[in-house]
Amino acid sequence: MGILKQLNSAPVYLICGGIIAFVAVLCVVFMVRAYRAGLAIGMDRTRMKRAITSSATFSLLPSVGILLGVIALSGSLGTPWPWLRLSVIGALHYETQVAQAAAEQVGMSTLSAAEMTPSGFATIALLMSVCIMWGMVLSVFFNKRYTRKLGAGSGNGGGGGFGDMAMTAMFIGLVSAYIGSYVGGFVSGGGMFAFAGDWTPLAVAGAACLAMAGFVYLSEKKGMAWLDSFSIAGSMIVGMAAAVAVGLVF
Question: For residue 245, how far is the Cα from the chain centroid?
């Protein structure tokens, strides 16, 4: 039996599907309890129903990005594991980055089913889980203290605290590392026409960047704040379309 058949086997589906079903039930329980708590404190029933409807509606398009991530990872990790990771606690940029890094550390040239082994998958799955669990663990011990600081600092009229700046700096560094690797591949390949394969990531990044800038402009300058919920998924779709276009042209 091939590795993908094992990763897509019924027992793996049963394990991952059971965990997802458990989390889904918890979400329903908390939603019902929150709704009842809202009624208990006198919140308007119509407004709460409207909030539920709008939240469900605005979750549809952003979830397209998650679906794309599951499809992208399923070719090398099977469907159940990416489905579990991206349904419960994972993030698309995190899962793909850690999976690729772990694959390289176990000796794979790229994250693919052709080079995947049971031990390689176990290492990749373990790292994908362990590296992201600390948010939950630290929240158990420090979240109450952190929320008190947020409440104390909310009325000072200043900008974001250290946490906001650190997160922004980390994200800029992550993007810069990716863009730097794309530029390095482009330069080492001798330019656009000498090695077109390394030019594709730059085109995709540029198209996605322009799309995100358009979403931000419409959201902040044109009063279309509802577009915030669709900016990531929309930019991903634009970037994927750019990759297809570059592949067809070059």
Answer: 24
